[in-house]
Amino acid sequence: MRTVRAPSRRAAVFLLLGLILAAGLPVAGAAQQLGVIQSPILTINSDRLFEDSAFGQRAAREIEQAGAELAAENRRIEAELTAEEKDLTARRPGMEPEDFRALADAFDTRVQEIRRTQEAKTRELNQKSEVERVAFFQAARPVLVEIMRETGAAVILERSSVFLSANATDITDLAIARIDGAIGDGTGALRARPLETRPQEPQEPEETAPAEE
């Protein structure tokens, strides 16, 4: 006999929270539109919301292109440094040890600088996906709020965190269509603000000279 697993504590908390929030919320008049589900609780697949949107697909293309360009740049730099190293090695027999050491040290220093520069570019590229994702959800928030207003919903839950729900409560496709219509692929849209900002140092009040009597 098959047994049904109990929902995880996290999923149960999410569901309970949604029920509590929805308990006292009246259904908005605009929620009577034909074709829009009426439910105090909605679900969404946030990963697919981003990845299948015009914004997410544009971001993915840009990241893929930037990654290919960076890989090509790394290969070109590697080939140039390899050729320079071979040339330096070939010249070594005819050079004074001190002269060769000076050139070798300068070469090593430049290699380290190039490595740091390319590693920084790689980190920046790796962070771009998260930056684009944050920007997307900032821009999508008003659209999701409007869908909640239309449906009379009090909460939108991550679908993967819900133990059981009707497919009709999933608004992922509806949200993608609405967001695409509102912001398109996000070209020129306001980018995400930094996740962390350093507080400004307090400014010392300017001293003013006493007024002359």
Précis, in short:
With 213 residues, this protein is mainly alpha-helical. It contains 5 helices and 2 strands, in the order αβαααβα.
What does this protein structure show overall?
The protein is mainly α. It has a domain of 148 residues. Helices cover 59% and strands 4% of the residues. Strands 1-2 form a two-stranded parallel sheet. The longest helix has 55 residues. The protein is rod-shaped, with a radius of gyration of 29 Å. The N and C termini lie far apart (99 Å). The N terminus is likely disordered.
Main attributes?
4% strand; 5 helices; mainly alpha; two-stranded parallel ribbon; 213 residues; single chain; disordered N terminus
Topology, pairings included?
Layout: H1 9-23, E1 41-44, H2 46-51, H3 54-91, H4 97-151, E2 155-158, H5 172-183
Parallel strand pairs: 1-2
What fraction strand? Answer: under 5%
Structural class assignment: mainly alpha
Run of helices and strands: HEHHHEH
- Uncertain ranges: 1-34, 190-209
Can you summarize the main beta sheet? 2 strands, parallel
State the end-to-end CA separation.
99 Å
- Count up the helices: 5
Overall number of strands = 2
Give, in spatial order, the strands making up the sheet with the most strands.
1-2
- Helix proportion: 55-70%
Principal-axes geometry comes out as rod-shaped
**Mean of residue pLDDT values:** 79
Radius of gyration, taken over Cα atoms and rounded to an integer in Å: 29 Å
